[in-house]
Design goal:
2 domains; binds zinc ion; alpha/beta; Glutaredoxin; five-stranded mixed sheet
């Protein structure tokens, strides 16, 4: 099935808007510290990277087929290997209607380098299938999440019952990993969280992040004086268990703020270009926002956040 422009504009937003994304996305440390899955390693890491991508994708699909329960289906759409407890037709529909348009739009705005390795996307139809899948892959329950991206395995696992926003979040991580492996964690999570609730631009070429429930979390934290300073959240531990929901809300709101000012795409490119000398992205952010220091950025961002009216879908 080929998407027409009209379908992209009308179906895309509906597919991508999360309706019940209620579980905090995992931090990178939580998703990448998964116990080693030997078979999955063999599929994605140990094969000769000089082998054609087609061959490596087919091998990854075969390995997962052997690893997961027998009735799971797999299709290859290079560089992606899609699998799930869905029919092949449903997997293909997810690729055509959600994954491919999202990948195209994010490539226009951000990602210059598409994945060069098989990138696995596993779609689970329910909480129970999601839990089973994670147990089979690496003996971890993971039921506290609705989606995961493992950098080590280049693997997305999503509970599609949680809404399409989860897939958009984790897919952004996978694409960012290929394009900008050293992307600071706070920005990686901010950009991924932005796409939990998004729609295509009128020309169909860009994804625009919309308001979601995280706005209110960030506003409440600011009102209580609990929002971290920019310098702190960019340079110190992100997303610790006791304050993950505030940190995620904080960085998503910052991305929304940058997007509204037309600075999000320039910041991504500047952050990537300066990564060696500015690994946290702090100086790049001040440069793009044209402020003299992080405090000036905080002042402007806080003034925007406290007056920002969350649009209801
Ligand atoms: Zn995430």
């Amino acid at each position: 099935m080929k998407l027409t422009r009209k379908q992209i504009l009308t179906v895309g937003p509906v597919l991508l808007v999360a309706t019940c994304y209620a579980i905090a996305a995992p931090s990178r440390s939580q998703s990448s510290q998964a116990a080693v899955s030997i078979i999955d390693d063999a599929a994605t890491e140990d094969r000769d990277p000089q082998e054609p991508l087609t061959v490596r994708c087919a091998a990854a699909a075969k390995s997962l087929q052997d690893r997961l329960v027998a009735n799971w289906k797999f299709i290859v759409r290079e560089p992606f290997v899609l699998g799930g407890d869905l029919t092949e037709k449903e997997l293909d529909a997810s690729y055509q209607q959600t994954i491919a348009p999202t990948v195209r739009a994010l490539a226009v705005s951000y990602f210059s380098n598409p994945p060069r390795h098989p990138t696995i996307i596993l779609l689970c139809s329910s909480d129970e299938r999601f839990r089973e899948c994670n147990v089979q892959l690496d003996d971890q329950d993971r039921s506290q999440y609705s989606g995961l991206y493992s950098r080590k395995h280049r693997r997305v696992v999503v509970n599609v019952a949680s809404g399409e926003g989860t897939l958009a979040h984790e897919l952004t991580h996978a694409l960012a990993h290929a394009d900008f492996p050293a992307m600071p964690e706070w920005f990686d999570e901010g950009l991924a969280s932005l796409h939990e609730e998004c729609e295509f631009s009128l020309d169909g070429l860009h994804l625009i992040g919309n308001d979601n429930w995280r706005n209110e979390v960030a506003q409440d934290a600011l009102t209580r004086g609990e929002l971290r300073l920019l310098e702190d959240i960019t340079s110190k531990r992100f997303g610790s268990r006791d304050r993950a929901h505030v940190d995620y809300a904080h960085v998503r709101s910052m991305c929304l703020y940058l997007q509204e000012r037309g600075l999000l795409e320039p910041f991504y490119r500047t952050c990537r270009a300066n990564a060696a000398n500015d690994p946290t992205g702090l100086r790049s952010l001040c440069q793009v926002a044209d402020v003299t220091d992080p405090k000036a950025f905080d002042d402007a961002f806080h003034a925007w956040l406290i007056t920002h009216q969350t649009a209801t879908p």
